[in-house]
Amino acid sequence: MLMTRPSFLLSLAVVSIAAAQQIQNAGTSGEWLTYGLTPSETRYSPLDQINAANVKRLGLAWSYDLGAGGGGQEATPLVWNGTIYGITNWSVIFAVDAKTGKERWRWDPEVNQEAVRPTICCGVVNRGIAIYQGMIIAPVIDGRLHALDAETGKPIWEARVAYSQDEYTITMAPRIASGKVIVGISGGDHPKRGFFDAYDATTGQRLWRFYTIPGDPSKPFENAAMRKASETWDANAWKLGGGGAVWDGIAYDPETDLVYAGTGNAEPWPEEFRGEKGKDGLYACSILAVHASTGELKWHYQAVPDDTWDFDSVQQMMLVDLTIDGRPRKVIMQANKNGFFYVLDRVTGEFISAQPFAKVNWAKGIDSKTGRPIVNEEARYSHEPITIFPSAGGAHNWSPMSFNPATGLVYISANTASSWTFASEEKFEAKQDKTSNNGLVRPMPTPRENKIPVIGPEPLEGTGGVVTGNRGALMAWDPVEQQMRWRMPGGGGIGGGTVSTAGNLVFQVINDGRLMAYSADKGEKLLETQTGLKSGMGPPITYQVDGKQYVALMGGVGTVIGNAGPQNAATPTSPKLLVFALSEIQ
After folding, report:
1. Per-run averaged pLDDT (10 residues), the chain, 586 residues
2. How far apart (Å, rounded) are the C-alpha atoms in residues 22 and 16?
3. Which member of 7, 52, 124, 334 lies 3.0 to 4.6 Å from 504 by CB, making a disulfide possible if both were Cys?
4. What is the pTM of this model?
C-alpha cells in the first residue's frame, strides 16, 4: 500500500491537469464545458462560422420544453460530447442531443417545493452545472450537491452543502478547480453566515470551507483570516445578522491555483444596527482569493467597506491579461453592482483602477492609491429616506458579461440609471421566521429632495446615435482606459447576458425575450429576434457540433399551479431551451 499510494496520487494529479486543460480548450473544440466557457470566465468563443456578414440568417433550429415553471431560467447550458446539459429553476437536470434536441435523459432531485419555497431568499432559480470526468455536477436549490453519470443521468455521489431548513439555498453554478468542486450558498438576506466550499470532484467529500464573515468571537477562530475580520465587526454583530453569501461569481486561475470568490452584503443593511459604524466589516462586499489546495486566504479586496446599500460584490469576475501603462498585467475584472468597473492584479490583489459605468451617488469616486471608495457621507441614510444611485438591484447584477480579445472590450448588460430609496426602521429586531432581515422600512417611503451629486458616464455619439433616457443598455467598456466605447439600448443588470465571438459578434439576450446580435467593434445592430419567451431569460452560449455552429439559450417563467407549481410542459407558456443556427437560404 505504501508503494502504490504515491502513484495513485500522481495519477489523480494527472487526471486533474488533463481535465483542467480540456476545460481551458473548450472554446477551441466547439464545446462549452464550464459556466464562463473557460475558468477565466470571459465567455469568448473562437468560433466564427456565424459572423457579422451572415448572422442575419440565424433562425430557430429546434426547441426543448423544460417543464414546470415558477421561476426564471438563469442557467448557462453546457455542451460536451454532442450533448447539451442543463438545469431548470427547480434543479431538474437534463441531457439532450445537441443537433436535434432529442432528450437523452432527465433526472429530478424531487425538491420539496412547498417546504423549500418560503426559505428561499431571492427567487426560485439555478444558474448552472459543472462537468468533470464524465460526471455532471449539479447544485440543488435545497442545499444538496449531486454528481450524475453524464451518459445515463444516474447519481454517483451526493453531498450536503447546507440545509434549506436553516434558510440556506444554492443558486449558483459550481466551478471545477484543480479536481475540486467549488460552490457557495445563498441566504445572505436572512440572518446567516456566508461561506463557500471545496469538494473532491471524484468522491464528493468536503475538503475545506471558507467562511466569509466572522462568527461568535467567544469561540475559536477558524483561521487567521477570521481573526483579522473579527476586528472589523462589533462583537455582537453576529447575533443580529450575517451576510457575505457567495451566490454567484467564482473564477479560477490554473497558473496560480487561486480560486476567486465574490461575497455579498452584510446583514442587516443599515450599519447602525450592526454596531460597527466606521468599521469595514470584512469580508462582506469583497473579492477573495484563496488557495484551491487549502482554502487559505491569499488576498482580499473590499469594494464597499462598511456597506449599507446592499452592494454585493458577487458579480462575474474575468481573468485576462492586459497591457496597462505599457506594462503587461494579469488582471481580474468586475463590473460591480455598486456601479464601478474594477481592475485588480489577480496575483497580488493590488488595486489598479476603477471608474463608474453607471450613475453613482453613494461615492464620489475611488481613491487611486488605496482603492477605497470616497463615500458621500450624505448617502449614509438613517430613518429619513434618501435616494441612492445605483439601486439595491445594482448597475450590474448576475447577468453575465463577455470579453473579446480582438476588440479589447467587455460587453456588459447593465442598468445605467437605477436608484432606490433607503430608510432604516426605527427599531431593529433580528427575525428568525424566514422573512427578510434587512432592517429597512417598507413600503418605500417618499424620499427627501436628493442633492447628492451624481457621477457616471455621459451618453456617447455612436452607431445608434445618442442613447438617452434608457436605463437598460448593452455597454462596450474599455477596461484599460476605463471608458465606454459604445452603448445600445436594451438589457439590464438582471436577466439575459452576453457572449462574444471571433466572428466580430456580441450576442445578447434581453429579459423581454429578445435575442440580439451586434458587431463587436462598432456596436452595429445586426439581428433582433423575438423568441416568444417573455421573461426569465438566461444567458446565451455558442457551440459547434459536426462542423456546424449553434447559439443556445434558456428562458421563460411559465405558470404556477398551487404552491409547488407543477405544470404541463406542453403549454405555450412553458419555459424552453432554444437553439438557433444559420438557415441554408442565402
Report:
1. 35 49 69 98 98 98 90 96 97 98 98 92 92 98 98 98 94 98 90 94 98 94 96 88 91 98 94 84 97 98 96 98 98 98 98 97 97 96 92 95 98 94 87 70 77 81 44 94 96 94 98 96 98 93 98 85 38 81 80
2. 10
3. 52
4. 0.93
